[in-house]
Amino acid sequence: SPCSRPQKVCLCPFLPVHPLKVSTCLYIIQHPAEEGRVLRTVPLLAACLPPDKCKILVGRRFNEERYPELATVCRNPNTLILYPGAEATNLEEVAVMSSGLSVMIIIDGTWSQAKDIFYKNSLFRLPKQVQLKPSISSQYVIRTQPTNTCLSTLECAAVALSIMEKNKSIQETILHPLQALCSFQLQHGAQIHHSKEHLLKNGLYDKPMPKNKRKLRRMELLVNNVKI
């Protein structure tokens, strides 16, 4: 079945009957560690889209010799890469000016894994860098996020596609299986995971504070509500 889950917790009824018709093509750059996660969201995303609109590449290092197609995509002026930062433009602004077909690259992994992939692969500095406004909270409540506005890969793709395609229903359709996944897991014993930001601010963080000064500084910024 499309979701590859046991019948009691099958997510197929929550997937769209037919793949969504979109003009934007997604390239998901997936860190190898994500392949082993049972509750990863990329398979659900792929099940919502046509195969030619959601291409998944697994690895840490990407160069032109091994990935000529990806190199061509990165050099295309219509290609965007979704990665927040000082150099990133809000996607809403770019979508207003965009015309025709477009490609978006999204990195799938933990924040540290995504950072490693982005900065150690020069190809990913070629596309225009965009980011989402921190306007919604993650519904992926069975996995801990750094802050309240950090989103899973599926959520990022859902929001981004709805903006690029100018169709809010795309976001709702893609989030439907994620909501069902979290509901099933909570019914079978999973616990709601608050963000690290929430735990620190409310005195609920029960793990030892890191000794690494850089990590400790990041946690101090979370507590003081400073964007990192």
TrEMBL record:
SMART domains: DTW. It comes from Grantiella picta. GO terms for molecular function: tRNA-uridine aminocarboxypropyltransferase activity. Keywords: S-adenosyl-L-methionine, Transferase, tRNA processing. One of its GO terms (biological process) is tRNA processing. InterPro entries: DTW, DTWD2/TAPT. Its EC number is 2.5.1.25. Residues 1-190 form the DTW domain. This is tRNA-uridine aminocarboxypropyltransferase. PANTHER family: TRNA-URIDINE AMINOCARBOXYPROPYLTRANSFERASE 2. Belongs to the TDD superfamily. DTWD2 family. It catalyses: a uridine in tRNA + S-adenosyl-L-methionine = a 3-[(3S)-3-amino-3-carboxypropyl]uridine in tRNA + S-methyl-5'-thioadenosine + H(+). The keyword tRNA processing applies. The keyword tRNA processing applies.
